[in-house]
Amino acid sequence: MKPDRHAGKWAQAILAAQNADGTWGACFHGLAQPGSAPLTTEQALRRLHALGFTREDASIRRCVDTMAACLRGERKIDAYWETGIDWAMYEPLMLAAWIRLFDPEQPDALAYAKRWAKIVESAFSDGFLNVTAWDAAYEAEFHRRERHPRPIRLTALYHAMLLPGVLSAETDRAFVQHILTRPDGMYYVYPQPLVHPPAIFAAKETSYWLSAIELLTEYPSATEQLHFAAAFLRLNAMPDGQWDLGLKANDKVYFPLSDSWRTEALRCADCTERIAALLHKIEKGD
Fold first, then answer.
1. pLDDT digits over 203-221, tens only?
2. pTM for the predicted model, two decimal places
3. Spatial distance between the Cα atoms of 241 and 130, rounded to a whole number of angstroms
4. What does the domain layout of the chain look like in residue ranges?
5. ∠ CA 32-71-98 to the nearest 5 degrees?
6. Virtual CA dihedral for 124, 100, 141, 135, nearest 10 degrees?
7. Terminus of the chain with fewer CB atoms < 10 Å: N or C?
8. With helix as H, strand as E and coil as C, how does 49-108 read?
9. 159: exposed, middle or buried (C-beta count within 10 Å: 0-12, 13-18, 19+)?
Protein backbone atom coordinates (compact mmCIF):
# COMPACT_ATOMS: atom_id res chain seq x y z
CA MET A 1 0.00 0.00 0.00
CA LYS A 2 1.24 3.48 -0.89
CA PRO A 3 2.10 5.50 2.25
CA ASP A 4 -0.12 8.44 3.21
CA ARG A 5 2.26 11.36 2.69
CA HIS A 6 -0.36 13.79 3.95
CA ALA A 7 -0.14 12.27 7.42
CA GLY A 8 3.65 12.08 7.46
CA LYS A 9 5.84 14.25 9.63
CA TRP A 10 7.12 16.37 6.73
CA ALA A 11 3.67 17.43 5.63
CA GLN A 12 2.39 17.91 9.16
CA ALA A 13 5.24 20.25 10.05
CA ILE A 14 4.46 22.45 7.04
CA LEU A 15 0.70 22.41 7.64
CA ALA A 16 1.22 23.41 11.26
CA ALA A 17 3.06 26.54 10.10
CA GLN A 18 0.38 27.69 7.63
CA ASN A 19 -1.12 31.13 8.18
CA ALA A 20 -4.88 31.58 8.48
CA ASP A 21 -5.08 32.99 4.94
CA GLY A 22 -3.35 29.92 3.48
CA THR A 23 0.10 31.43 3.02
CA TRP A 24 3.29 30.66 4.95
CA GLY A 25 5.66 33.00 6.75
CA ALA A 26 5.84 36.68 5.94
CA CYS A 27 7.17 36.36 2.38
CA PHE A 28 5.74 34.64 -0.66
CA HIS A 29 8.85 34.48 -2.85
CA GLY A 30 11.87 32.39 -1.97
CA LEU A 31 12.91 28.96 -3.24
CA ALA A 32 15.88 28.12 -1.03
CA GLN A 33 15.78 24.79 0.78
CA PRO A 34 13.34 24.76 3.70
CA GLY A 35 15.21 25.34 6.94
CA SER A 36 17.77 27.69 5.38
CA ALA A 37 15.52 30.68 6.13
CA PRO A 38 12.03 31.34 7.51
CA LEU A 39 9.55 29.25 5.52
CA THR A 40 8.10 31.03 2.49
CA THR A 41 4.89 30.22 0.67
CA GLU A 42 6.83 29.07 -2.38
CA GLN A 43 8.97 26.71 -0.30
CA ALA A 44 5.89 25.23 1.33
CA LEU A 45 4.03 24.80 -1.96
CA ARG A 46 6.98 23.17 -3.69
CA ARG A 47 7.47 20.71 -0.84
CA LEU A 48 3.76 19.89 -0.53
CA HIS A 49 3.54 19.34 -4.29
CA ALA A 50 6.41 16.86 -4.07
CA LEU A 51 4.54 15.11 -1.26
CA GLY A 52 1.48 14.69 -3.47
CA PHE A 53 -0.79 17.47 -2.28
CA THR A 54 -3.38 18.68 -4.80
CA ARG A 55 -6.18 21.23 -5.20
CA GLU A 56 -8.40 18.75 -3.34
CA ASP A 57 -6.54 19.41 -0.10
CA ALA A 58 -7.97 22.20 2.06
CA SER A 59 -4.53 23.66 2.77
CA ILE A 60 -3.85 24.07 -0.95
CA ARG A 61 -7.32 25.43 -1.68
CA ARG A 62 -6.87 28.17 0.92
CA CYS A 63 -3.56 29.18 -0.58
CA VAL A 64 -4.84 29.07 -4.16
CA ASP A 65 -7.83 31.24 -3.21
CA THR A 66 -5.53 33.82 -1.60
CA MET A 67 -3.14 33.83 -4.56
CA ALA A 68 -6.08 34.27 -6.93
CA ALA A 69 -7.33 37.25 -4.91
CA CYS A 70 -3.86 38.78 -5.18
CA LEU A 71 -3.79 38.11 -8.92
CA ARG A 72 -7.11 39.95 -9.25
CA GLY A 73 -5.63 42.90 -7.34
CA GLU A 74 -7.96 42.53 -4.37
CA ARG A 75 -5.11 42.27 -1.87
CA LYS A 76 -1.31 42.09 -1.72
CA ILE A 77 0.50 38.84 -1.17
CA ASP A 78 3.13 40.63 0.95
CA ALA A 79 5.24 43.80 1.09
CA TYR A 80 8.28 42.24 -0.58
CA TRP A 81 9.70 44.08 -3.61
CA GLU A 82 12.82 43.43 -5.65
CA THR A 83 14.67 46.08 -7.59
CA GLY A 84 16.61 45.22 -10.72
CA ILE A 85 13.64 43.35 -12.20
CA ASP A 86 10.13 44.44 -13.18
CA TRP A 87 8.60 43.19 -9.93
CA ALA A 88 5.16 44.52 -10.83
CA MET A 89 5.19 41.98 -13.68
CA TYR A 90 7.13 39.24 -11.93
CA GLU A 91 4.80 38.95 -8.94
CA PRO A 92 1.62 38.10 -10.90
CA LEU A 93 3.65 35.73 -13.07
CA MET A 94 4.71 33.80 -9.97
CA LEU A 95 1.21 33.81 -8.50
CA ALA A 96 -0.42 32.56 -11.69
CA ALA A 97 2.25 29.89 -12.16
CA TRP A 98 1.76 28.42 -8.69
CA ILE A 99 -2.01 28.52 -9.04
CA ARG A 100 -1.88 26.64 -12.34
CA LEU A 101 0.50 24.02 -10.95
CA PHE A 102 -2.28 22.96 -8.59
CA ASP A 103 -5.37 24.16 -10.48
CA PRO A 104 -4.76 24.55 -14.24
CA GLU A 105 -8.35 25.70 -14.91
CA GLN A 106 -8.55 28.37 -12.21
CA PRO A 107 -10.10 31.24 -14.23
CA ASP A 108 -7.85 34.13 -13.14
CA ALA A 109 -4.61 32.22 -13.62
CA LEU A 110 -5.80 30.68 -16.89
CA ALA A 111 -6.68 34.10 -18.28
CA TYR A 112 -3.25 35.41 -17.27
CA ALA A 113 -1.54 32.39 -18.84
CA LYS A 114 -3.34 33.07 -22.12
CA ARG A 115 -1.92 36.59 -22.14
CA TRP A 116 1.59 35.18 -21.87
CA ALA A 117 0.70 32.57 -24.49
CA LYS A 118 0.07 35.37 -27.00
CA ILE A 119 3.63 36.60 -26.44
CA VAL A 120 5.16 33.15 -26.72
CA GLU A 121 3.17 32.37 -29.89
CA SER A 122 4.56 35.53 -31.51
CA ALA A 123 8.08 34.91 -30.27
CA PHE A 124 8.14 31.34 -31.66
CA SER A 125 6.20 31.94 -34.87
CA ASP A 126 9.20 30.75 -36.92
CA GLY A 127 9.80 27.68 -34.76
CA PHE A 128 12.53 29.26 -32.62
CA LEU A 129 12.79 32.17 -30.22
CA ASN A 130 12.89 35.53 -31.98
CA VAL A 131 13.92 38.05 -29.33
CA THR A 132 12.75 41.03 -31.41
CA ALA A 133 9.32 39.47 -31.80
CA TRP A 134 9.31 38.66 -28.09
CA ASP A 135 10.01 42.29 -27.15
CA ALA A 136 7.32 43.61 -29.51
CA ALA A 137 4.68 41.14 -28.31
CA TYR A 138 5.54 41.78 -24.67
CA GLU A 139 5.15 45.53 -25.10
CA ALA A 140 1.92 45.12 -27.07
CA GLU A 141 0.31 42.82 -24.50
CA PHE A 142 1.43 44.48 -21.27
CA HIS A 143 2.08 48.03 -22.50
CA ARG A 144 5.55 48.10 -20.96
CA ARG A 145 9.11 47.34 -22.02
CA GLU A 146 11.77 45.16 -20.44
CA ARG A 147 14.08 47.98 -19.37
CA HIS A 148 15.42 46.25 -16.28
CA PRO A 149 18.95 44.85 -16.07
CA ARG A 150 17.54 41.43 -15.15
CA PRO A 151 14.84 40.54 -17.69
CA ILE A 152 12.06 38.09 -16.99
CA ARG A 153 13.45 34.77 -18.18
CA LEU A 154 11.32 32.71 -20.51
CA THR A 155 13.05 29.56 -19.32
CA ALA A 156 12.48 30.11 -15.62
CA LEU A 157 10.45 27.78 -13.46
CA TYR A 158 7.45 30.10 -13.65
CA HIS A 159 6.81 29.99 -17.40
CA ALA A 160 7.26 26.22 -17.34
CA MET A 161 4.48 25.98 -14.72
CA LEU A 162 2.29 28.63 -16.36
CA LEU A 163 1.97 27.61 -20.01
CA PRO A 164 0.89 23.95 -20.30
CA GLY A 165 -2.32 23.63 -22.30
CA VAL A 166 -2.46 27.18 -23.66
CA LEU A 167 -0.05 26.98 -26.61
CA SER A 168 -0.66 25.76 -30.14
CA ALA A 169 0.84 22.36 -30.98
CA GLU A 170 3.65 23.94 -33.00
CA THR A 171 4.54 26.49 -30.34
CA ASP A 172 4.25 23.92 -27.57
CA ARG A 173 6.84 21.79 -29.36
CA ALA A 174 9.18 24.72 -30.05
CA PHE A 175 8.88 26.06 -26.50
CA VAL A 176 9.72 22.70 -24.91
CA GLN A 177 12.64 22.24 -27.28
CA HIS A 178 13.90 25.71 -26.37
CA ILE A 179 13.83 24.91 -22.66
CA LEU A 180 15.50 21.53 -23.18
CA THR A 181 18.42 22.97 -25.11
CA ARG A 182 19.09 26.20 -23.22
CA PRO A 183 22.72 26.26 -21.98
CA ASP A 184 21.59 27.63 -18.61
CA GLY A 185 18.80 25.11 -18.15
CA MET A 186 15.63 25.97 -16.21
CA TYR A 187 16.20 28.91 -13.88
CA TYR A 188 15.52 28.18 -10.19
CA VAL A 189 15.58 24.43 -10.85
CA TYR A 190 18.52 23.07 -12.88
CA PRO A 191 21.33 25.26 -14.28
CA GLN A 192 22.57 22.97 -17.06
CA PRO A 193 21.13 21.95 -20.46
CA LEU A 194 18.26 19.61 -19.71
CA VAL A 195 18.87 17.65 -22.88
CA HIS A 196 22.10 16.36 -21.30
CA PRO A 197 21.25 14.27 -18.22
CA PRO A 198 23.58 14.52 -15.19
CA ALA A 199 26.89 12.67 -15.44
CA ILE A 200 26.41 11.12 -12.00
CA PHE A 201 23.05 9.48 -11.41
CA ALA A 202 23.16 9.10 -7.61
CA ALA A 203 23.33 12.82 -6.82
CA LYS A 204 21.19 15.74 -5.70
CA GLU A 205 21.65 17.28 -9.15
CA THR A 206 19.75 14.39 -10.70
CA SER A 207 16.79 15.09 -8.42
CA TYR A 208 16.75 18.69 -9.62
CA TRP A 209 17.03 17.56 -13.25
CA LEU A 210 14.07 15.25 -12.62
CA SER A 211 12.03 18.15 -11.25
CA ALA A 212 12.52 20.13 -14.47
CA ILE A 213 11.63 17.13 -16.62
CA GLU A 214 8.53 16.54 -14.46
CA LEU A 215 7.31 20.06 -15.23
CA LEU A 216 7.80 19.55 -18.95
CA THR A 217 5.68 16.39 -18.97
CA GLU A 218 2.62 18.64 -18.60
CA TYR A 219 3.14 19.82 -22.19
CA PRO A 220 1.39 17.82 -24.95
CA SER A 221 4.58 17.57 -26.99
CA ALA A 222 6.55 16.10 -24.08
CA THR A 223 5.95 12.47 -25.01
CA GLU A 224 7.76 12.85 -28.32
CA GLN A 225 10.58 15.00 -26.91
CA LEU A 226 11.47 13.24 -23.66
CA HIS A 227 12.41 9.77 -24.89
CA PHE A 228 16.03 10.57 -24.04
CA ALA A 229 15.04 11.14 -20.42
CA ALA A 230 13.18 7.84 -20.23
CA ALA A 231 16.17 6.03 -21.75
CA PHE A 232 18.52 7.62 -19.20
CA LEU A 233 16.31 6.57 -16.31
CA ARG A 234 15.90 3.00 -17.52
CA LEU A 235 19.64 2.74 -18.09
CA ASN A 236 20.22 3.65 -14.45
CA ALA A 237 17.74 1.23 -12.91
CA MET A 238 19.23 -1.31 -10.53
CA PRO A 239 19.09 -5.03 -11.34
CA ASP A 240 15.95 -5.39 -9.22
CA GLY A 241 14.17 -2.68 -11.23
CA GLN A 242 14.38 0.00 -8.56
CA TRP A 243 16.26 3.29 -8.53
CA ASP A 244 18.50 4.89 -5.92
CA LEU A 245 19.56 8.54 -6.08
CA GLY A 246 21.74 8.20 -2.98
CA LEU A 247 21.75 9.89 0.39
CA LYS A 248 22.75 13.30 -0.99
CA ALA A 249 19.43 13.57 -2.81
CA ASN A 250 17.82 14.22 0.58
CA ASP A 251 17.29 17.98 0.25
CA LYS A 252 13.99 18.39 2.16
CA VAL A 253 12.49 19.75 -1.08
CA TYR A 254 11.84 16.79 -3.36
CA PHE A 255 13.05 14.11 -0.94
CA PRO A 256 12.49 12.34 1.32
CA LEU A 257 8.90 11.26 0.77
CA SER A 258 9.02 8.78 3.63
CA ASP A 259 9.30 10.01 7.19
CA SER A 260 13.01 9.13 7.14
CA TRP A 261 15.74 7.50 5.11
CA ARG A 262 17.05 5.45 7.99
CA THR A 263 17.29 2.45 5.70
CA GLU A 264 18.36 2.02 2.10
CA ALA A 265 15.05 0.28 1.42
CA LEU A 266 13.07 3.42 2.30
CA ARG A 267 15.32 5.59 0.16
CA CYS A 268 15.04 3.26 -2.83
CA ALA A 269 11.28 3.06 -2.41
CA ASP A 270 11.00 6.86 -2.52
CA CYS A 271 13.29 7.19 -5.54
CA THR A 272 11.51 4.38 -7.36
CA GLU A 273 8.06 5.83 -6.68
CA ARG A 274 9.06 9.17 -8.13
CA ILE A 275 10.91 7.86 -11.18
CA ALA A 276 8.28 5.25 -12.03
CA ALA A 277 5.60 7.95 -11.99
CA LEU A 278 7.69 10.14 -14.28
CA LEU A 279 8.32 7.29 -16.72
CA HIS A 280 4.62 6.57 -16.86
CA LYS A 281 3.89 10.18 -17.82
CA ILE A 282 6.59 10.23 -20.51
CA GLU A 283 5.69 6.90 -22.05
CA LYS A 284 1.90 6.90 -21.71
CA GLY A 285 1.51 8.29 -25.23
CA ASP A 286 3.69 5.67 -26.93
1. 999 999 999 999 999 999 9
2. 0.96
3. 43
4. 1-80, 82-193, 197-286
5. 35
6. -40
7. N
8. HHCCCCCCCHHHHHHHHHHHHHHCCCCCCCCCCCCCCCHHHHHHHHHHHHHHHHCCCCHH
9. buried
